[in-house]
Amino acid sequence: MSQSTASAPQPLAGEALGRAYKAVSTLYHAYLTGLILTVVTRRDRADAAELMFRTFRHQHLEKFLPGLKLLGLDKLPHAVACAQYHYLSNHLGGVKVEFMPESDRKAWVRYVPPRWIFHGTAICGIPSELSRAMLRGWHAHNGVSLGNPRLGFVCTKQTVDGQDSLEGYYCEYDHDLAPEERLRFAPGEAGPPFDPAQAPRMAGDDWPAERFRKVERNYAMEYVRSVLPVMAGLFGEADTRFLGSVTGKLIGMQFHDEVAALLDVQGDTGEDFARLMQRFGEAVGDAVTWARDGADLWIEQPPPRIFRGLAPLPSAAVDGWHSLWEGLLAVHNRALRLDLIDRCDRGDAVYRWRLRGGSVSV
User: What is the pTM of this model?
Assistant: First the structure.
């Protein structure tokens, strides 16, 4: 193509970079919550619970044991190590969480509202089965992964049932647990108060704000990276394409103003939207470029970081991700059209969009 105008981005730094990280975590966090609600409302509660179970089991198998070692917890008693893991990993991701040790064989963890994964008013649409499935997917499997058949998790509260937190404790029993005993519910029990002085600390508590924003960005991205392929395996390509795309469009539209403000994009031209995609890409670690060819703008990037290493990459996952940009554009300027022309999941070297129509400036 004949490129008459090419982008020359100014690198983001300092507060602007921190705000860009926030834009990424905001959009992907909302997309994750939206996908859960979409499955609840457009399929059913049982399917949504199975999606939660498989997503959290996938995350567990991929992250738990390496995370224990990375956080320096792999030599601690198992119950304490597990509770500290959930405290530290979630705390760094921007989740409100508390840790309360009782002994080497019993340690509590409490997820305090506002609940991160069921963001805002979305929590009102989350059935109890989904919270239980999340615990089955991750917490109930810690003992299995650690090779300790005596370790289980006891849930004492669930926020989605109207209680003041998601709360429970890891307990090492005197006997091996049957699979159905690895997670039990004891709503009559109550955990001890949280003492910040007893909470574990790690390098990073004194990080600058933009570094915390980067960790929060990674946290949200990892969940989206996990859930889309899990959906494709569970529901098939066609249904995942529909569910992911309708969610992406809605989330892009609902969060356009917030994302654009964080990225300091104020206009409504095609170039302004290309800059939005470019700044978002920079905050993710993707080299997004754009150029004009006559009346059209062309935007391209290499395989996005959120999908790198996933093989095979379901095309439905890409369609859902692309729909986020369609939703953002629908509010940015509804007269513009964004077409995904080249895509790496179908063998192309880059992802490339054509942006055309409406009030694209010359």
Answer: 0.93
